[in-house]
Design brief:
About 35% of the residues lie in helices and about 25% in strands. With about 270 residues, the chain is of the alpha/beta class. Strands 3-2-1-4-5-6-12 form a 7-stranded parallel β-sheet, sandwiched between helices. It has a 5-stranded mixed β-sheet with strand order 8-9-7-10-11, covered by helices on one side. The relative contact order is 0.16.
Length: about 270
Amino acid sequence: MADLRIVVVGAGGRMGRALITAIHGIAGAQLVAAIERPQADCMGQDAGTLAGLEPLGVPVTDDALLAFAAADAVLDFTMPEATLTFAEYAAQARIVHVIGTTGMPVEDDAKIVAASRHARIVKSGNMSLGVNLLSVLVEQGAKALGLEWDIEVLEMHHRNKVDAPSGTALLLGDAAATGRGIDLAENSERGRDGITGAREPGSIGFAALRGGSVVGTHSVIFAGDGERVELSHIAEDRTIFAQGAVKAALWAFPQKPGLYNMLDVLGLSKT
């Protein structure tokens, strides 16, 4: 079987460079295009050199449409508006679109679903094996423990992260809500400040910390009377997300068009 031809969008960013490195190191994957904004400083540079590798003969360009037309998959950790555009392109080209972009508003979900009628889309708030295993454990814990146990999701990221709570925190919060059979949007508490009153029974709380160069730390706390259970994941290198994204693309390529997540990729989905 020929190598999967992969495009990286947002190639000049930290995740973009990590994705280029991951593709280079995983058998069966080949980088065929690296895309950036027209005004990006890295425009025209060799993608391998940009990522700290030997030259790969793949220059950074801004022509996503042309790149998608000659590819099997695109890896996308960019911004919500750009991701919607790339989803449309992926649907037109009928290729795999792996979406690691976070901070996407709920109203964008319908557009992603529409694109998945023609593209194979894998969308997840986190691409790592450890976090997705954690989400399964959180769902089981929330199902097993009663409403008298309070659930709090605590996360910390680097100072430059622009969205909060993180996509991973929301993924874990959704797992807890699923375990309890409730809707997360209707049962979450965020941004407490001042005289807030007592904690709402049965709610799922979120706290977001930002600082330094932290890649990602997440904890789900089940707080009962007289005891506490904490489930945590610490990401020490964003390479784990990049490797997961490449593996997701390899998994999705032979699948039918549709919307998938990392639990599907890892064989942890209940459906």
